[in-house]
Specification:
The structure holds two protein chains of two kinds. By secondary structure, chain A is α+β, with helices and mostly antiparallel strands. Chain A contains nine helices and twelve strands. Chain B is α/β, with parallel strands linked by helices. Classes of the chains: A alpha+beta, B alpha/beta.
């Protein structure tokens, strides 16, 4: 796993251990390098000191060409276990004596070389002049030492270094485990709080503050934001409650209003109507035609007023009635609606053209009302056309939004008044020309907008009108 | 002479009363109508108390109740009639100006015998009242009189 995806606790431990490891390694390496260099020098110095001592002891043996003495002196090197071989050469450079005595000839250089000690391959070897007095050269001493001492030392150091590293690592690990909590604990507690809030949406929890450092600052800011959110939430809730209460109140008032309208406005109407008719009945014979006409008009107006009140109440109800959602077969709905309109057609010739219609999502009773309003309008405004043509179908569909249309070849209307078309009690034709209260299309718009759709119309005077509205295709359809 | 089959008409609007009586008159039923102007009076009449204390009229064969009345409304009168074991058999017809669904449901829940929306058109109104009077006072057989008399 990449470091950045590790939990912060392990990340901190890893960083601390990594850092201490690198520091330890570097320290050990430089210590090693230093030791290596000094130990080499020390070894060379020791060997040359030894060589000086042996050379001094050998002067007599060389001067008197005493082989036995020379052999003895060289044999004394046995005490130095790292000395692999040694040899004495006389003044002419001829091998005079050797150690060990039975060593193979190739172990000794055939002639002395340049004075001084040099590191060779796994060996430290060199030549020491055997001098008598100030500078009377009697011969040369050859000493060859293996690197055993160096290696031994290195092995020891290596073991010590490994031990130190292991102990340091362990201590670093234990310390880091304990110390990383200082940093990780507040962060983890903050993260835990954030997660709890995200899961439970409970904004009343607060993160615990552990210190005054940057994390403490972060915790403070976090808690402050929570307080803010909580306050905003409460504010919002309170406002929603208030608004809901206001709406409920308004709705209640509206209901009381329409209840009162339906009762109280109708009673006087009934009375006017009743007395007008009683007057006609009791005085009808004595009235002239003009007066009878007045009574008739009064009576008709009252009837119209009754229709208006009914339509208005119906319109108000449309906005409040609860929607019952289901899948609605529009094709069936249109068939039923057309069947129900037969009485309004008075034997007129109407050519119906129904395109295929889908199943949509909605309230069947309310959608039926839309078709009743649109199709009865079409029937009404095609009066005088022979034949009247009324067409229904789907105009287009995009993103599940269906555009339906109802088209007629009737009276149409002037597009500059199109925006008035769907207003309550708005009419674009005189009552004498086409009867109606101007509520039907307002109702249709209200129903369609409650279904989340739009309704609009396109028309031209005397060239028919097309009404479009959008609905959502049913999941099943 | 056969016992008069009385109709109790509870209606606060004098005009509605006049129009109703006019309609009932066509079948000579008007003289059997007792008119009260609010729900309290209607209950007083049925329980023979208040200004109807000592009244010895037989119980009405029909109660015509307007829904909206001062003091005690039609719905409350209906509730009390139908809750009273002595009165509950008297047919009650609710008459109202509008067809509010909750009123309809409530009335039928309480046991109303009929619910009539007063038509705006006078001809229709007359026709409705007439038919109501004819049906309940002439055609319908009321609950046994003994049942009603000795309460």
């Amino acid at each position: 796993m990449a470091l950045k995806n590790l939990p912060i606790r392990r990340k901190l431990t890893a960083i601390i251990l990594g850092t201490s490891g690198v520091v330890l390694l570097l320290t050990c390496a430089s210590f090693f390098a230093y030791e290596f260099l000094t130990f080499r020098q020390t070894t060379v110095r020791q060997l040359s000191t030894l060589a000086e001592v042996v050379a001094d002891n050998s002067t007599a043996a060389l001067a008197f060409e005493n082989h036995n003495d020379a052999k003895e002196i060289l044999n004394s090197l046995k005490a130095e276990k790292h000395i692999v071989s040694a040899a004495l050469y006389d003044r002419e450079g001829k091998l005079f004596s050797q150690y060990p005595a039975d060593g193979p000839a190739y172990a000794f250089p055939s002639a002395p070389e340049k004075d001084g000690f040099r590191f060779g391959h796994a060996h430290l070897a060199g030549f020491q002049p055997v001098v008598q007095g100030v500078n009377k050269r009697l011969g040369t001493l050859y000493l060859n030492s293996d690197m055993g001492a160096v290696y031994e030392r290195f092995r020891l150091y290596g073991a010590i270094a490994a031990l130190v590293m292991a102990v340091s690592f362990l201590v670093a690990y234990v310390l880091s485990r304990a110390l990383q909590k200082q940093i990780s604990h507040p962060i983890l507690s903050l993260a835990e709080t954030a997660r709890a809030i995200a899961e439970r949406r409970d904004y009343s929890v607060r993160a615990a503050k552990t210190g005054e450092d940057e994390l403490g600052l972060l915790t403070d800011a976090f808690n402050q934001m929570l307080t803010e959110i909580q306050k905003l939430n409460q504010d919002l809730e309170r406002r929603v409650h208030e608004r809901t209460a206001q709406l409920e109140e308004a709705n209640k008032e509206m209901e009381a209003f329409s209840y009162s309208v339906s009762h109280d406005l109708r009673a006087p109407l009934r009375h006017v109507q009743g007395y007008v008719e009683l007057l006609g009945k009791h005085a009808g014979d004595t009235l002239n035609d003009k007066c009878r006409r007045y009574l008739k008009i009064a009576s008709e107006s009252v009837t119209q007023m009754g229709d208006l009140i009914d339509d208005l109440l119906n319109f108000a109800r449309m906005g409040r009635v609860e929607m019952r959602q289901s899948s609605v077969d529009l094709e069936k709905l249109v068939q039923e609606t057309v069947a129900g309109l037969q009485s309004e057609m008075n034997g007129r010739k109407v050519v119906w053209k129904h395109g295929p219609l889908p199943q949509v999502q909605g309230d069947p009773a309310l959608l039926k009302q839309v078709f009743v309003n649109l199709l009865s309008n079409a029937v009404k405004y095609t009066r005088g056309r022979d034949p009247a043509q009324i067409e229904t179908g789907v105009a287009s569909e995009s993103n599940g939004e269906l555009v339906m249309f109802v088209r007629d070849n009737g009276a149409g209307f002037d597009m500059q008044y199109a925006d008035k078309l769907f207003g309550v009690f708005q009419r674009l034709h005189g009552a004498e020309e086409f009867e109606g209260t101007g509520v039907g299309l307002a109702n249709a718009r209200r129903i369609i907008s409650r279904h989340g759709g739009r309704i609009w119309a396109e028309a031209a005077v005397n060239s028919g009108a097309t009404f479009y509205f959008t609905l959502t295709r049913s999941q099943k359809g | 002479m056969a016992e008069i089959k009385r109709i109790l008409l509870a209606e606060d609007s004098k005009k509605d009363v006049e129009l109703a009586l006019e309609a009932l008159e066509e079948h000579h039923l008007a003289n059997a109508v007792i008119v009260v102007h609010d729900g309290a009076e209607a209950l007083d009449y049925l329980y023979r108390r208040g200004k109807f204390a000592g009244n010895t009229d037989t119980r009405p064969v029909l109660v015509l109740l307007d829904l909206k009345m001062p003091k005690v409304d039609g719905m409350e009168v209906l509730r009390q009639i139908k809750a009273d074991p002595d009165l509950k058999r008297i047919p009650v017809v609710m008459m109202t100006s509008s067809r509010e669904e909750r009123d309809l449901v409530c009335s039928y829940d309480l046991g109303v015998n009929a619910y009539v929306v007063k038509p705006v058109k006078f001809v229709d109104f007359v026709e409705s009242v007439k038919q109501l009077g004819v049906f309940w006072a002439l055609i319908n057989e009321p609950p046994p009189a003994s049942d009603i008399k000795h309460l």
